[in-house]
């Protein structure tokens, strides 16, 4: 069994289009949203009384997975697979609670008290924030294979069929009259990957001239019409609310949109993108308290099995197993040039330079 909480704000957008005045949203609002996420996850994770690892009246164990926006479909399918596997292996039933929202906001919700047993977030830095709060052990990144990244993705463009604005690469996103949809780097992991991919492209174009790169980025974000708190909210703005000419998107999110709306959208692979590596970890403080350490480790380890890796490929994520990834070569643009976050000095360095308060993003966006 599983349940999920949606903290992406999709329901709000379905009641009307967001105004472009969203640019004036304050950090106080972001912080309060994170607190609300924490309260929602805490209430659902705790419903029924007792610790998450204790047997409920029906004998089931409970595990809470706090994740980021676009993984809800993947984990809905994975949870069913895992519940069956765990039942067959141990004879025990498991109930899994899912929570989804912007990755940064989700990390803050755990820091503020959401009773997550595991986190499956968009980038390593978000897990580092939880580690720094004392909730995750410092060796988390080596606990699971491939730096605790069981799947990867990249950043692509989603346009409407026929590509009316002729968008082919990052430089088309700075043209006058091109409306861009991309989420907010202050709350969304996808948005951070988007920013770094665009910065890398501009660095190549301008030979590393920082002033020219910043000017390029300022023009790009000057074309962003709506800056949602998470990737799924940005997809809703582009697809359901019809805003913008191009969505800067997770590859898996774009693939799902094309699948769900046949004939309405196209994916454009830019000349250079980034290898996006979502990360997973056990929230040790909570898992120890809830008695779910063994269950949580089994849950995350199973992501690396052949069965789960193939499911990951089916849902548009790049399996970390190279052999299985090649089985899905017709789905992904494996020839696209991909930079990595290591070219920015790793996530701690990249976050400090670009996304912390007063960093480069604030500088070019005028925050």
Summarize the structure.
The chain is α/β, with parallel strands linked by helices and 367 residues long. The protein folds into two domains: 2-152 and 278-327, D-Maltodextrin-Binding Protein, domain 2 (3-Layer(aba) Sandwich); 155-275 and 336-365, Periplasmic binding protein-like II (D-Maltodextrin-Binding Protein, domain 2, 3-Layer(aba) Sandwich). It has 16 helices and 14 strands.
Provide structural commentary:
The protein has 367 residues and is an alpha/beta fold. It has two domains: 2-152 and 278-327, 3-Layer(aba) Sandwich (D-Maltodextrin-Binding Protein, domain 2); 155-275 and 336-365, Periplasmic binding protein-like II (D-Maltodextrin-Binding Protein, domain 2, 3-Layer(aba) Sandwich), CATH 3.40.190.10. It has helices spanning 10-14, 27-46, 72-90, 103-111, 124-132, 145-148, 189-205, 210-222, 231-239, 251-260, 284-290, 293-301, 306-314, 322-327, 347-355, 360-365; strands at residues 2-6, 61-68, 94-101, 118-121, 151-152, 155-160, 180-181, 224-226, 246-250, 265-268, 272-274, 279-282, 318-319, 337-339. Helix 2 (27-46) packs across helix 4, helix 4 runs parallel beside helix 5 (124-132) and helix 7 crosses helix 8 (210-222). The longest helix is centred in the N-terminal third of the chain and has 20 residues, at 27-46. The protein is globular and about 60 Å long. The model is unreliable at 9-57 (pLDDT under 50).
């Amino acid at each position: 069994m599983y349940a999920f909480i949606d903290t992406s704000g999709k329901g709000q957008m379905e009641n009307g289009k967001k105004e472009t005045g969203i640019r004036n949203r304050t950090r106080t609002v972001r912080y309060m949203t994170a607190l609300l996420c924490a309260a929602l996850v805490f209430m659902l994770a705790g419903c029924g009384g007792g610790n998450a690892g204790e047997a409920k009246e029906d004998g089931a164990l409970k595990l809470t997975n706090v994740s980021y926006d676009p993984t809800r479909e993947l984990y809905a399918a994975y949870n069913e697979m895992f519940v069956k596997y765990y039942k067959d292996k141990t004879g025990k039933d498991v109930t899994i609670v899912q929570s989804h929202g912007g990755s940064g906001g989700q990390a803050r919700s755990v820091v503020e008290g959401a009773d997550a047993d595991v986190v499956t977030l968009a980038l390593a830095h978000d897990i580092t924030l939880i580690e720094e709060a004392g909730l995750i052990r410092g060796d988390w990144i080596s606990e699971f294979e491939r730096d605790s990244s069981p799947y990867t993705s990249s950043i692509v463009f989603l346009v409407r069929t026929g590509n009316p604005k002729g968008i082919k690469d990052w430089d088309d996103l700075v043209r006058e009259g091109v409306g861009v949809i991309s989420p907010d780097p202050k709350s969304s992991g996808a948005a951070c990957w988007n920013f770094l991919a665009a910065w890398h492209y501009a660095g190549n174009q301008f030979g590393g001239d920082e002033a020219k790169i910043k000017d390029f980025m300022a023009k790009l974000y000057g074309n962003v019409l709506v800056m949602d708190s998470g990737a799924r909210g940005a997809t809703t703005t582009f697809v359901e609310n019809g805003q913008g000419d191009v969505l800067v998107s997770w590859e898996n999110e774009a693939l799902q949109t094309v699948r769900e709306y046949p004939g309405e959208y196209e994916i454009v692979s830019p000349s250079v993108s980034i290898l996006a590596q979502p990360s997973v970890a056990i929230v040790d403080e909570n898992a120890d308290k809830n008695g779910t350490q063994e269950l949580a480790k089994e849950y995350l380890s199973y992501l690396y099995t052949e069965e789960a890796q193939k499911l990951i490929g089916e849902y548009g994520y790049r399996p970390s197993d190279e052999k299985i990834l090649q089985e899905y070569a017709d789905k992904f643009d494996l020839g696209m040039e991909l930079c990595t976050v290591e070219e920015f000095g790793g996530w701690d360095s990249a976050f400090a330079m670009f996304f912390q308060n007063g960093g480069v993003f604030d500088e070019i966006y005028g925050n």
